[in-house]
């Protein structure tokens, strides 16, 4: 049977049908997106331009911030423009690219968070071997692994959707192309594809979440042997990591750990992990971290001082 594929574009319903709410959302999300760009760029530059880049924890943190910028940029600009647009459409190819981008950067972020948990585990539970275990070569390999893992995950998701026929309705009750809303529009039975998609996303989300919980539990248990100062420092760092993990994985698990169904709350939940988490990450990591704050003061304070002196 030749597959009918006469849908060349999809129409988004967006976040709201009310122009008043859309205007408020436009202001709000524009502000959020600017904060995402500035906050994460500040972390990337601070880590790369200071001595912190030599430390594995900050090496991974700078890449987490870079991924956050990419991740939110896949959906946020289009959503913000659409809030004021009459025509909220996206081409078929654009939709598939967005689907790929969301899953690629989202999955890479999950893997980076997992690697960061492993890094903290080694630092706290095996402090004497930390620099030999987490040498630069191993860090580079782990980082490459996160990107390769993200790519494999997203290429599977897109391959499953691309081969489906789309011949009829083309309206998506969402503000970006995600697997479940797009599957609903296919002109064929998508049960098998839905199961595979859920298994793919669900295994990664739940598997990583369990690994993270176990590693942070081991860390917290091992803290009992530490001195009061060491315990305080470790708790401060791990506290911020755990906060990010919970904020990101909560909504993620709600979205992808269930069969191929969509809920009306999906859009609000998606806002959380595509916009709120990337915005909160820099705040959580910098406010809770003395070393990052000091590096920022040193680096940016020095540059400002030199500029003033130069004048």
TrEMBL record:
<feature type="transmembrane region" description="Helical">
    <location>
        <begin position="268"/>
        <end position="287"/>
    </location>
</feature>
<feature type="transmembrane region" description="Helical">
    <location>
        <begin position="204"/>
        <end position="223"/>
    </location>
</feature>
<keyword id="KW-0716">Sensory transduction</keyword>
<dbReference type="GO" id="GO:0004984">
    <property type="term" value="F:olfactory receptor activity"/>
</dbReference>
<keyword id="KW-1133">Transmembrane helix</keyword>
<dbReference type="InterPro" id="IPR000276">
    <property type="entry name" value="GPCR_Rhodpsn"/>
</dbReference>
<feature type="transmembrane region" description="Helical">
    <location>
        <begin position="96"/>
        <end position="121"/>
    </location>
</feature>
<keyword id="KW-0472">Membrane</keyword>
<comment type="similarity">
    <text>Belongs to the G-protein coupled receptor 1 family.</text>
</comment>
<feature type="transmembrane region" description="Helical">
    <location>
        <begin position="235"/>
        <end position="256"/>
    </location>
</feature>
<keyword id="KW-0552">Olfaction</keyword>
<feature type="transmembrane region" description="Helical">
    <location>
        <begin position="26"/>
        <end position="50"/>
    </location>
</feature>
<feature type="transmembrane region" description="Helical">
    <location>
        <begin position="142"/>
        <end position="166"/>
    </location>
</feature>
<dbReference type="GO" id="GO:0005886">
    <property type="term" value="C:plasma membrane"/>
</dbReference>
<dbReference type="Pfam" id="PF13853">
    <property type="entry name" value="7tm_4"/>
</dbReference>
<keyword id="KW-0807">Transducer</keyword>
<dbReference type="GO" id="GO:0004930">
    <property type="term" value="F:G protein-coupled receptor activity"/>
</dbReference>
<keyword id="KW-0812">Transmembrane</keyword>
<protein>
    <recommendedName>
        <fullName>Olfactory receptor</fullName>
    </recommendedName>
</protein>
<dbReference type="InterPro" id="IPR017452">
    <property type="entry name" value="GPCR_Rhodpsn_7TM"/>
</dbReference>
<keyword id="KW-0675">Receptor</keyword>
<feature type="transmembrane region" description="Helical">
    <location>
        <begin position="57"/>
        <end position="76"/>
    </location>
</feature>
<dbReference type="InterPro" id="IPR000725">
    <property type="entry name" value="Olfact_rcpt"/>
</dbReference>
<keyword id="KW-0297">G-protein coupled receptor</keyword>
<keyword id="KW-1003">Cell membrane</keyword>
<feature type="domain" description="G-protein coupled receptors family 1 profile">
    <location>
        <begin position="39"/>
        <end position="285"/>
    </location>
</feature>
<dbReference type="InterPro" id="IPR050427">
    <property type="entry name" value="Olfactory_Receptors"/>
</dbReference>
